[in-house]
Write a structure and sequence with these properties.
heterodimer; B: alpha+beta
Chain lengths: 177, 176
């Protein structure tokens, strides 16, 4: 019984060591790769309205956007990249806030799935509420970012090589997008 | 049992040595943990993912290495670990909105990848944003599955005491 236990112990310790070594190798072999890609963003239509924001209880500016997005994420995947969390971010400045960042759309691509993005004239997924009523006439920068989720390792946040500057309309719209 | 043979052969001085050895191990572990707290700036530099609200990126039992570099402001897309006042359990979600005033005061909104809506329903009543004091750290590194040990030990505390007790006994009774 003694040798059985000690053999089991050795086997167990060895398996754990091997798994740890492979995990570390996974991390080390992919840590220094370049995860950036080219990105094409276009705004097809944008309007600004003013309405009460849920939970907040105040009327804030709400932006409605339709955009097109083209990017090929296939080269970003490798044996250590199990998922890409992509998000389209709008950045702008207002008198109240120096930095405003709002995620308008996101998507999860797992390793093995189709990683080519070709969206045409899609609506934003999330509400583009301002922290106030200062969206009219503002210059916004739209950029695509992705979070590299590894099997093991560092959680990179990468920005697409190109971004888009766009100016929101000066006045509130009366109709729907 | 053969386990006690080593111990039976020890004289008093060797017993003291064993106890000191045990103390050294505990102290080293504590030093490493506290050292990581200082190096990362986070009160809890390693956390275990407890819920499925960030699937498929993180599953229950995965381990996250946190950083909290105060000179690097929190931006949209980052995964933050934060606590809500009055509740002990930290939440691991993604930042989807950031508003920073000209004076540098930041507030942000979070949402779990696997949730349909943002976290305003989770915050304290009346709370609309997460702010820096709530943040425990930001996820920087990831290792899968390893945290399952912690979850099992927390779900079955008797197992935790048994394992720790046996380990302690082992260190005390055996020589290097």
């Amino acid at each position: 019984m003694n040798t059985f236990l000690s053999r089991l112990n050795t086997l167990f310790a060895f398996s754990i060591s091997v798994v740890a070594a492979v995990t570390f190798a996974c991390f080390l072999t992919t840590h220094f790769l370049d995860y950036t890609q080219d990105v094409e963003i276009e705004v097809k239509k944008a309007i600004v309205k003013n309405m009460e924001e849920f939970y907040v209880g105040e009327k804030h500016d709400l932006g409605h956007l339709r955009f097109s997005l083209k990017a090929n994420m296939t080269p970003v995947f490798n044996w250590n990249c199990k998922e890409l969390f992509l998000y389209l971010m709008a950045e702008y400045e207002t008198p109240r806030n120096k930095i405003n960042q709002v995620v308008l759309w996101d998507k999860i691509i797992n390793r093995g799935e189709n990683a080519v993005l070709d969206l045409k004239k899609v609506h934003a997924k999330y509400y583009f509420f301002d922290d106030g009523s200062e969206l009219r006439g503002k210059n916004i920068t739209l950029s695509l970012h992705w979070n590299v989720i590894p099997n093991a390792g560092y959680l990179w946040r990468v920005k697409g090589r190109q971004d888009l500057g766009y100016t929101l309309p000066d006045s509130y719209a009366g109709s729907r997008v | 049992m053969e386990m006690f043979d080593d111990f039976k052969r020890m004289n008093k001085r060797q017993v003291y040595y064993q106890v000191l050895n045990f103390g050294m191990i505990i102290a080293s572990a504590l030093m490493i943990w506290k050292g990581m707290m200082v190096a990362t700036g986070s009160e809890s530099p390693i956390v275990v993912v407890l819920s499925g609200s960030m699937e498929p990126a993180f599953y229950r039992g995965d381990l996250l290495f946190l950083g909290n570099d105060r000179s690097d402001p929190i931006r949209a897309g980052e995964i933050v670990v934060f606590k809500i006042e009055g509740r002990d359990i930290p939440i691991v979600h993604r930042v989807i909105k950031v508003h920073e005033t000209h004076e540098g005061k930041i507030k942000f909104l979070t949402k779990g990848d696997n949730n349909e809506v943002d976290d305003r329903g989770l915050y304290k009543p009346g709370q609309l944003w997460v702010e820096k004091p709530h943040v425990v750290g930001r996820a920087r590194g990831f290792v899968p599955y390893v945290g399952m040990v912690t979850i099992i030990m927390n779900d079955y505390p008797k197992l935790k005491y048994a394992v720790l007790g046996l380990l302690g006994l082992f260190v005390l009774l055996h020589r290097e």
